[in-house]
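To whoever is on call:

I kicked off a structure prediction for a single chain this morning and the downstream step that reads the tokens threw a length-mismatch warning. I double-checked the sequence; it's 338 residues and nothing unusual in it as far as I can see. Pasting both halves so you can look.
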Amino acid sequence: MICASFLKVHLRKKSIHAVAIAGAATMIFVSGCSSTPSQIDLAHSWSTPVRIEPAGLSSDYSSLYGVSCASSTFCAAVDESGSALFWRSGKWSSPQTVWAGGTLNSVSCPTTTFCMAMSAGGNAVNYNGQSWSTPVTVGPSATYEVSCPTVTFCATAAASGTPGAPSTVGTFNGGSWSTFQTSTTGALNDRILDVSCATPTFCVAVNLDGHAIIFDGTGWSTSRATGVKGLVSVSCPSASFCMAVATSGSSVTFDGTSWSISGAMPGFQAGFVRSVSCASATTCTALGLSGLAADWHQGRWTTPVLVFPGGYMATVSVSCATSSSCVAVNSKGSAATR
């Protein structure tokens, strides 16, 4: 309850993801944790966080909303002020304004010379290795997430900020976007909060009610339950494996046919899991608003470690190019790597 109160106070200027999570958090009952699994022998531990936004920016407008790593030496991050930053061979660039209609909610980079970013205004912009394109309208104002497995295909999912309004899902074919709105009730828990694509013919989107819809290359399936409520993030490194995580620290996996509950993260009951990234079908990393991160390896979660100290964040995001190469960003304009 303390965490939910924090979110309501500190996230009022942030994305509707945070508002939706705060609302759902009060309804999630957290059961006891499973026994602590053995630690993963990672090649690198997390670095000390460094601020990558200019020190002169107000803390209210330095939220890094998303990060995507195409390789262990290239990542792109986007922020609340509508700027993008690049991580190349261990160094961050200064923020570059992207004229996309306000806050950039998410970014996806399948290669080092192509990234797609989505704005809260419903616009998409892509990066060609040198510059960003002019914005293209995809849908209504909302909080968009985007996933691009290739340079010629992306999928997006967006939760509307209007009570009762449906979510938006859409796909990009390398030249244009096609979108439609889908929702059973438009209620808070029915809003789609994330999407991940392994290939142009396999994408999964999840919502707070614990349901998922799947794109098969031609259309989206009807919503079906996964077995865990409060899902906020999903990562699909292949068409036969996806990991979805809930704010409570619970998680489910998908084998391409059915969902299986994969257990809770030890010590994550109040950690408010927000983002997950899977480098393979055997290794995933989850990051919470508390600054804690946990790793999943061959079916078991490790004990969380503190990546971002200093209390609860308003936004966090993690992207892993390999099991030992990840980049995490947060609402304080900071980034950490391993």
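Update from on-call: the warning came from a stale cache, not from the record. Cleared it. Sanity check on the structure: The chain is about 5% helix and 45% strand.
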